[in-house]
Design a protein that fits this description.
Blueprint (H helix, E strand, L loop, with lengths): L1 H14 L1 H29 L11 E8 L4 E3 L4 H10 L3 E7 L4 E6 L4 E9 L4 H4 L3 E5 L10 E5 H8 L8 E4 L2 E10 L11 E3 L2 H7 L9 E6 L5 H23 L3 H8 L3 E6 L3 H4 L10 H28 L1 H13 L4 H38 L8 H27 L3 H5 L10 H34 L9 E5 L8 H12 L5 E5 L12 E6 L2 E10 L3 H4 L4 E4 L13 E5 H7 L3 H4 L3 E4 L6 E7 L14 E5 L12 E6 L4 H15 L8 E3 H6 L3 H34 L2 H9 L4 H35 L11 H25 L4 H5 L3
Parallel strand pairs: 5-10, 7-9, 16-21, 18-20
Antiparallel strand pairs: 1-2, 1-11, 1-12, 3-11, 4-5, 6-9, 7-10, 8-9, 13-22, 13-23, 14-22, 15-16, 15-19, 17-20, 18-21, 19-20
Helix pairs in contact: 1-12, 2-10, 2-12, 2-13, 2-22, 3-7, 7-8, 10-13, 10-15, 10-22, 12-13, 15-22, 15-24, 15-25, 22-25, 24-25
Length: about 800
Amino acid sequence: MINNWLRIAFINYKKNWLSTIINLFGLTIGLTGFMLILMHWNDEESFEKWNPKKDSIYYFQTYSKKDNVYGAAISIPYAENALKRISEVQDYVLMTNTGASYKMTTKVKTAYQENGFPVTESFFNIFPFKLISGSYKNALKNDTDIAISTVTAKNLFGKTDVAGETIKFDNKNYIVTAVYELPKGNSQIKPDFVYKPAEQILNDKEQWGNFNYAGFFLLKKGADPRNFEKKFLDIIMIRAKINSKEGGMTPQQYIDLYGPNDSLLTPIDKIKLHAESTWFGKPDFKSIIILFTLSVLIVILSAINFINLKTAQASQRAKEIGVRKAIGGTKSSLVLQFLMETFLICIASYLLSLALTELLLPSFNKFFDKEIVMNDWHIYFYSFAMVALVTVISGLIPALYLSNFEAIETLKGNFARSKHGVWLRNGILTLQLIISSFFIIGGLIVNQQVKHMMNKDLGFNGKQIFQINFNEYNNGKPWLKYERLKTEMAKIKGVESISFSEAPPGTTNQSSSNMDYMNTSIQARHGSMDYDYLQFIGVKLLKGRWLNPKLSSDTVNSALVNEAFIRKFGWTDEQAMKRDIRPGFDNKPYHIIGIVKDFNIRSLKSEVEPIIFFHYKETEWKRFNVFNIQLKLNEDDIDGTVKRIKNYWKKNEEPGYPFNSYFIDKQFAKTFETYQKQQTLFTILNAMVLMVALLGLFALSSLMIEQKLKDVAIRKTLGASDSILILGLTKQFLWITFTAVVISIPISYYLINEWLKDFAYRIDMPVWPFIFSLIVLLLLTFCVVSIKAYQATKVNLVKYLKYE
């Protein structure tokens, strides 16, 4: 029986070779896209799975009710009080940086070492990397203790058994207490060396408001993180009771004004995609879901093609089914036979998609900057499950439809004149075109949004501005290094001017604090800078004046603010110029002397944040944040000037360190990369969808028009012109296309508008993509169907009329 079914299947594959190829092609493309996106999602979900304590480790976040935002940091007093007062807490670790870099010297060699983490003592209790040498007991207890990875050990010593050896960096000698091996699995926490920032910890130990640390809490076995969050409210109140007295307010008023209002714990293996805010970048789970949904839609389109083509071929197999039923074939056996035919196509597509996925994986990895390999059984399991699902859905509908034919009717030849399958085919074709219309509309609007962001006036001019980041800080006094370099590098040919800013465009991590005026407080970014930095990058002054080096007050208590700062307080420009505000980073009032036009520093996805600009000497500790120098280059010889700057730097500054530099306009352009990739992916998926849909439409129209060739012959004999015949054959498909686009418009509008809501600077929903989608699909439908319709007008009349 099985052999007979296989023979019949291959006869039908050969007879309908075009539809067979289209089904194979469509399902292969769909399954390949599905597997690639599934691997991407699976890779994103696999972070921190290596940690044996992952079920008890949580990442800490704060919540501010006033601004409805989550913060990714914690202060030392909050963490210590959580350990003392919350019974669920077993331990915690704080880290204050995730990219410390130093030139390190050992008895063997001197080398530049990156990716260091300054952490608190309990680091290895939370992150138990495999120990290679030394001991984790008290590994970071002393100020001069350091633990290094095997990679760092080999780089500095040429071997891994180096516990007890000495490393000198940052003008200090450190003792290696442990050597560890970094986990093989995906992790955002892979430090090449860890040490305790003793001086910073000492300074921050009593500072409730210094949120300078990422915090991880190890809870006791079986502890409920929600209980931690409830009890943490009491710790928030402790701080409020201490600090509210100075301001003459109640503790609750203090919390409402300054926050935080609540806390949130996210499991460590969920923070890559599911945390609200992290030290390692904002999670983007929505993009993964969008990509996955689009890949599933392509598979659905392929399944629709299969259903359409199978039901359209019904008349060709009607007599076969009638004969089978007449000699005793059951409905269930017919269903199984047709499901087997579908499964053979699906399994062939699956095997082809595995090969195509392997072929495309290197390019896919390069696009997403990943190292995915096809060695995870989940990928094969879920992709095969998708194949089984497609087999059932795309096979069962045609199978039930075909097996329901009445033997007497089909043997009498009445099936061809029946409209039994018209509504099924038209309905499924409509669904396919709805999806195609959505992809066209969505692709055009995504493209418009990305273009809008890239062409938007950023409010600054970063062209020809070359930034060099410091690695060494002039014996702990970086501002002195900057001031010396400003004088010396001005002599380099091609350098027009020099300045500095703590918050240059393209940076993602800027410090912020509360800004107080009377009983009102807002959060604002810090923008310590040199006198002329805002003019240096072409920011526009709206009111007041710039900082002036001739006025001593401009290094004491003068500040400029942006429009967002004024809006947040609800002031007019005139009111702002009369205000003295108290910033949380200093203990004196600052007088607003100027208002500048908003300009983007971080990303166009987010609104411009309130920011305060002031000279770097105005606040004593801000001098220590002078970590870069920016040079405006003459446009006539940029390459030559950059070469001269590099030669000067290598010869006179920081030998042994890499030359860490970039043009700030190119650095800011990196904030667009995610959206440019979304644009590229949407374009590729759009092309795939249209290709699958149009091939399916062509095959379906071919089969349906073939069923009408006798009608065409009769009408042509009666004098119908070719144009009338073509219009008559295509009219039905054009109406289906028109209906599908009309249905897709509200669906597309809603879904795309939800995507656009994530952008602070977004386009207004344009009308033309919806009209364009209608016109394009009507034209493509007409072109595709009219090809076959035109061929139908050239039929041999004798062949189709000789039996009439």
